[in-house]
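It is worth pausing here to work through a concrete case rather than discussing structure prediction in the abstract. The textbook approach is simple: state the sequence, then state the predicted structure, then interpret. We follow exactly that order.
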Amino acid sequence: MSQAEELFAQVYETYGPALYRFCLIQMKNPADAEDVLQDVFIKRLYQAPRFKSPEHERNWLYRVALNLCRDEWRRGRRSELPLEAAAGVSLPPEELSLLDQAANLPEKQRTALHLYYYEGYTVREVARLLDVTVPTVKMRLKRGREALRKEWT
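Step two, the predicted structure:
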């Protein structure tokens, strides 16, 4: 295995599952999420800058994934399936149900919630990643939580 292939395999192993979950909640369809994920790693392989740190690389990957998901939504080339139909997604039923509810939120709330709660970014990191202010992220998180709370009650 070449050095480039080893690096690619290591990056995919490190970030692949989390990026797939992120793409799945954005695209609402396993096949579309897989397509976007593949494009993210193609960009990582051929167009990535030099990364200062693993955190810089992680942020870059999520930013690319978000942009690609948005591009696909704008083009209208996606199909919606309930997340329960996602073959191979091994999540507990209650977590899958929560992801399904979150998938119905507006994209900005859905993205902020996912990055904050599932990927462990701080509010400040989410703001930087999404290129918005900290108060904007806090409001998106608040509104997203309120919408999910309404769904669950």
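Step three, interpretation. The CA atoms of residues 75 and 150 lie 31 Å apart. The chain has seven helices and no strands.
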